[in-house]
Amino acid sequence: MTTLKTILTPNIDIETIRADFPILSRKVNGKSLVYFDNGATAQKPKLVIDSITNYYTNQNSNIHRGVHTLSQESSVAYENARATVQKHLNAKHAHEIIFTKGTTDSINLVATSFGKKYITKGDEILISSMEHHSNILPWQQVCEEKGAVLKVIPINDAGELIISEYKRLLNERTKIVAITHISNTLGTINPIEEVIALAHVKNIPVLIDGAQAVPHTAVDVQLLSADFYVFSGHKLFGPTGVGVLYGKEKWLNEMPPYQVGGGTIKTVTFKKTEYADLPLKFEAGTPHIDGVIGLAVAIDYVNKIGFKNIEAYEHELLIYATEALQKIEGLKIIGTAKNKASVISFVVEGLHPFDIGTILDQLAIAVRTGHHCTQPLMNLYNIPGTVRASFAFYNTKEEIDMLTSGLQRAIKMLK
Question: Which among 49, 162, 265, 373 is annotated as catalytic?
């Protein structure tokens, strides 16, 4: 049996990694925590936690506007974090990295600013059937305000995009495509390279929701030629309340500010305001400074492990868990795409996902139950919701065995 220790770089093993995450040692209901809710939020390594403590202990100050030492140190740390994200995504310019509150905030920024500049009555916006509500609602709102039309790319029973239908939907009225990189519910890894290339043939920009992708795979925005790429820090083992919008310089320069106020200006008079250059144009007010610094620490942490190592190990967990769960009578996996990340959603015949999740919690096994902010997808499969187990590189096969036995126990109790 292959273990993480043999896959990862020398001197790094699963015990070392798990020791980096303090919460993994806590007890729930008197039992050791098994955390399989990584799709909702990932746990934080001590390095990230310590970076936040250090900021408030030694550096706390507002940025960009102060000449004193603390402000200068905080400003340098904040902009160094921007450079870390730029390098991580291989963005061409640091000013193409905009810090936001999270994926939802990033999508709202693009939908609002892009919509204000480019969307008019009769235009079309294209999304997919598997989108998170955060990549549906902002575009619905733009369509309602502008008289535009929201079009949806269908998927097959396995949860894969039907590319032939996508090609059919692309036309001269399509003003932007917004699509998830990896489905938070199905685990489907979408062929975003092809999605972007097909749109670009018609000069249509593409936004990629990378919230579920960045914890599991390396992203190169120049290689993808993505026009916009968004993600949240808390799913990438960083703090909550901080996110990233990458946007090509061309689009960000042309789009109007999303929110305005302190930090977004060059000059202000009561008659007219001249706004700041990128990236400050889109960063109104005091930002989440400690969150941005913590995000940079989290990015350095995962890059030290290496995404090739992470992908290989998590794929092994996915295969192991899929084979184990398929042996449980009455259990059906929702989302069986050929190209999947380490997410498994399932239903058990005759049982409600909430009831299963409640019993698993008594066994200290944390899973997510419900519609996962993908109600249209649940309607497509004609189910109220699923149980979702989502894995990270600190999970183990032994924990998957505990999930399997816990499920069998829950099913026996509920039936």
Answer: 373
